[in-house]
Specification:
The chain is an all-alpha fold. It has a domain at 18-56. Helix content is 77%, strand content 0%. The chain is built from 3 helices and no strands. It has helices at residues 2-9, 19-46, 49-55. It is elongated, with a radius of gyration of 24 Å.
Length: 56
């Protein structure tokens, strides 16, 4: 990538990870994932396994 950008465009870029932002966003991502599973889990736990298997 460095050679291609340098030869073709005359510039390059440095990829750097901001670890503090990444770690700060982790709880938000986990909370969003948990909230996304709530409707499906509530639907499953309201019904008996036999009823779910009968519905197919």
């Amino acid at each position: 990538m460095y050679v291609i950008n340098r030869q073709s465009f005359g510039w390059t870029f440095v990829y750097a990870v901001d670890w503090s932002s990444l770690l700060a966003s982790l709880p938000l991502v986990l909370a969003a994932a948990l909230l996304a599973t709530l409707p499906a889990s509530r639907w499953v736990f309201r019904r008996s396994p036999a009823q779910i298997l009968r519905q197919g």
